Amino acid sequence: MTAVMTRADCVARDQRDPLRALRARFDLPDGIIYLDGNSLGARPRAALARAQEVVSREWGQDLIKSWNTAGWFDLPKRLGDRLAPLIGAKAGEVVVTDTTSLNLFKALAAALQLQAEGAGAARRTIVTERSNFPTDIYMAEGLTRWLDRGYRVRLVDSIEEIPAAVDDDCAVLMLTHVNYRTGYQHDMAALSRHAHAAGALAVWDLAHSAGAVPVDLHAAGADFAVGCTYKYLNGGPGAPAFIWVPQRHQAAFSHPLTGWWSHAQPFAMSHGFAAADGIGRALCGTQPVLSLALVECGLEVFEETTMAAIREKSLALTDLFIELVESTCRKHPLGLVTPRDHARRGSQASFTHPHGYAVMAALIRRGVIGDYREPEIMRFGFTPLYTSFADVWDAVAILKDILDREAYDTRAERSAVT
Ligand SMILES: *Cc1c(COP(=O)(O)O)cnc(C)c1O
């Protein structure tokens, strides 16, 4: 329990906050409290000038020369090296490229291939949670269907069932580190260790972890990882994702999307495919440079602080939010689905409400932007780089007002993107 109980206490806390200066690195409109950085991060101030530079000078003036002179060609690796420290990866182990869905496909294919060439050749299942983000499951099912070699995806219904499901038929344990709905954070080290002891490989999705919680892939013994840059890393809408292949697996890393960017000599235009050495083999084809370039503006901000400082504030913000919601909205049917245990919590707080969609729509109309996920879940993401303690106080005051007055419309039409 924190001692904060008045808005003035929150303001005082903001004044002591070592991260408070970083809010000025983002352009957020006045009059809104943005609690959706877990879905689309806010725009770094630097992004506008960078976009202008890429469009006007690099593309407009220097045209095709920019692949070399502006470093476009190396951008996936350069950004990967810049992102690496945030997830406990080394230089030369990460590329920013493609989408999370595609990178997961590559990582899973490579993991199955590693098993097929080794002691795990007879193993046939990819184990994951039914509550995983659907695209992860869709991609795994798509891959197993197309491989047509008897692989299948095994879905478990609870966290407790994971260890036993990683049996002698399990080739890969594929998990999302922080659950997108509940904010539950897995113990990556323990589960990776368990997978290895059982003869399986561990593939992690860091979509809700990178930039949100400290991650140390090497210390955790993970095998492969993927994640988004447009969520907590503030890379921009639809910005390319990342994939991590540790040095120890790079020589054996092979995936089916062998486009020319994963070739050892893309401009040799030769007939046979030969994979690039190192992390370059995780690429596929030409990247969306405009979008890719902006990822750097998000990463730059992280270099002014540490994940430890971000984590400390994230837990303080989520603790405060949970405490204020539970104390001031006690008479309403709200249910916390995010773990209270710090070790198991990501950087969000989710509450169920029977009219969750309508309440969230009312919140958004009043300037408190969170989002809604089926079933009944109101999701509030906390991004310590630009969210203040006073924001938390104000958001809860507005939530309480909406609930007390039942100022939400349960018949309103739903938008395509919730
Ligand atoms: C956001 C998210 C994705 C998004 O995948 P895209 O290919 O970028 O659309 C995938 N997996 C998880 C777990 C996510 O949270």
TrEMBL record:
Record-listed N6-(pyridoxal phosphate)lysine modification sites: 231
Cofactor or coenzyme needed: pyridoxal 5'-phosphate
Top EC group: hydrolase
Signal peptide start and end residues: none
Superkingdom to which the source organism belongs: Bacteria
Similarity comment text for this entry: Belongs to the kynureninase family.
The protein's name in its UniProt record: Kynureninase
